Amino acid sequence: MTDSSSKNHLEFPPGGERIAKYLARAGICSRRDAEKLIEDGRVQVDGKRLSTPAFKVTSGNVIRVDGKEVQKPEETRVWRYHKPAGLVTTAKDPEGRPTVFEKLPSDLPRVISVGRLDIASEGLLLLTNDGELARQLELPATGWLRRYRVRVRGKVHDGIIARLKSGIEVEGVKYGEIHVTRDEQSAGGANQWLTIGLREGKNREIRRVLAAVDVEVSRLIRLSYGPFELADLPAGAVQEVPQRVLKDQMGRGPRTEMTEDGGVKHAPRPKKPGGWAKAKPRGKPRGKPGSRSGSRPGSATKPKRASAQTRDSKHPASGKPGKSGGRPQSGPSRGKPSGSPARGKGRPKGNPSANRRRNP
Prior knowledge:
Layout: E1 17-18, H1 19-25, H2 31-39, E2 43-45, E3 48-49, E4 56-57, E5 63-65, E6 68-69, E7 78-83, E8 112-114, E9 122-128, H3 131-138, E10 146-153, H4 158-165, E11 168-170, E12 173-175, E13 179-185, E14 191-198, H5 205-212, E15 216-225, E16 228-229, E17 238-240, H6 243-249, E18 256-258, E19 264-266, H7 308-314, H8 352-358
Parallel strand pairs: 9-15
Antiparallel strand pairs: 1-4, 2-3, 2-5, 5-6, 7-9, 7-17, 8-9, 10-14, 10-15, 11-12, 13-14, 15-16, 18-19
Helix pairs in contact: 1-2
């Protein structure tokens, strides 16, 4: 629905995508924030102000936010940023504190953060030019593990660890499973380092749940967000995630891994069954000589065993032709005196199965 001055000019096209999603992909803001911009009347399409986020746009529309034309969405890109302590993860701070986006390199395109880190926290912060992707990665349903290195004052005993693992409720807010591992303790015993893993990532989650069990956080560093690692990225530095790694982690490419310095390497094939399928052999199939799977070039194949009828025709004294591999019905066997036990026809000497048949 549009205002009365634009009813005759703005019509819902049959194709395209919703304006809020388009703005999110263009890196203007998240989809939710785009809906708020539209409600405030700050978005125009082809010179007409919108009042509904359900309107669909195509590449042929001219879209403006606050009078500035929105460029077409570019290819999705993601950066790793080592946020130092003392910066606010917001575009503008009403209190005038320094923000993350003020410290980013000037050659970076317009980006938004995937989630946030509070002003006292540091470590890995993902940045992207795709607001829709940022929204998806922030959702708890995505299930990506966030790992933190946390320094606390005091001791964290097994009871606290068990309580956090089973979930905890603080001031009416329920927090899911949180994994805590004790790393090391200072010589005086006043401070302790923990490694904490969680999947929800609610606002100030670690500080709030630890405060609820009387543990004070003195330093908090995010080590990873899903498959993306902080590694040895210096504080304040920004490094783009290679497209091969990004497509791999989004499930659209070959399996690759990111090295400690942010480079790319291919993951090794697993040795255990259940991984990748074994590589197909090159050239002709190789197998034992005479086997159905084939034989090595130049090797002689094992001759087929003669049928019982063929053997009996060569040795009439054996009597009636028997089944293949059977013993003669009557008469002496070749090379043996009459009355001696007959060896099975066609079996080589020393064959254990033949001995078993002769000596039951």
